[in-house]
């Protein structure tokens, strides 16, 4: 009787895993232990906590189109660039992967989390006048 119960439990586990694998979409593979950080067209994690997560993950060379859980996996090179340099002001440039910690006339970050942020950033040699992201970029000497 015990063997029948163990066999039933084993078959149930196998069918559950097979069922999860069959629900993966195009360009996805089921993993019982995948990374908790998800790369998307807009975000590439540089550091990730070692947390094991089971589910469908994008195949090599593919990323999620967005951060939505049901977002399709697309080739990284097909991601649409959100670059709009026309909105950047004087002494600014658009970057797809800039720092989340902005240097200003009164603040120079010593420690910063490593993450990519897309948007307008001060050109080299320039800093924000104040902590407002919309403030102008000035040369360090002009602070």
Automatic annotation (TrEMBL):
The keyword Signal is annotated on this UniProt entry: yes
Domain TIL: residue ranges: 24-79, 88-143
Transmembrane feature ranges: none
Domain of life of the native organism: Eukaryota
Keyword presence, Disulfide bond: yes
GO molecular function per UniProt: peptidase inhibitor activity
Leader sequence segment: 1-19
Keyword annotations from UniProtKB, A to Z: Disulfide bond, Protease inhibitor, Signal
Name the record gives this protein: TIL domain-containing protein
Biological source species: Adineta ricciae
Species lineage: Eukaryota, Metazoa, Spiralia, Gnathifera, Rotifera
């Amino acid at each position: 009787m015990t063997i029948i119960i163990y066999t039933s439990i084993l078959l149930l586990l196998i069918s559950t895993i097979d069922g999860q694998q069959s629900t993966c979409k195009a360009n996805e593979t089921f993993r019982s232990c995948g990374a908790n950080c998800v790369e998307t067209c807009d975000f590439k994690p540089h550091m990730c906590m070692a947390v094991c997560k089971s589910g469908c993950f994008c195949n090599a060379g593919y990323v999620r189109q967005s951060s939505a859980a049901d977002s399709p996996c697309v080739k990284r090179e097909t991601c649409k660039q959100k670059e709009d340099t026309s909105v950047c002001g004087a002494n600014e440039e658009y970057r797809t992967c800039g720092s989340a910690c902005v240097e200003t006339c009164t603040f120079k970050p010593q420690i910063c989390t490593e993450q990519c942020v897309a948007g307008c950033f001060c050109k080299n040699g320039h800093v924000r006048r104040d902590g407002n992201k919309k403030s102008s970029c000035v040369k360090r000497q002009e602070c």
